[in-house]
Fold:
Amino acid sequence: MLCVGRCFLIVGLGLLSGCGTKPELAVVQGQVHFRGQPLNGGVIVFVPDTERGPPGNLALSELTAEGRFELKTKGQPGCRPGWHRISIASGTTASELPAKYRDPLLSGQEMEVKPGVINRCVIRLD
Structure:
């Protein structure tokens, strides 16, 4: 009987220690267009929307010359599931891209990242 009690204690402690584990990250891939053309370089940042969910770490990616990206969080591939506001800063066309897109509260860009699937995100900016 003592062995069974210890087993339950060990399993219970294992479950409790799991409460502090990191949430699983979901894959987010996409492309950013500006005025009909892929945005040539820059950075995209997904900021957890605390009005629709818990706070969390930022997910970000550099944009390729074709405007493509794949998000990472703290260097790990993926993004925490949930709603995010999006900010974008341009590399080579910084003077053309309106400043509002650098602010996740003003950009007008948002996305719900869903767990367990590859999330595709195509952003078209004016």
Summary: The chain has one domain: 23-125. Residues 1-18 have pLDDT under 50 and may be disordered. The chain has one helix and ten strands.
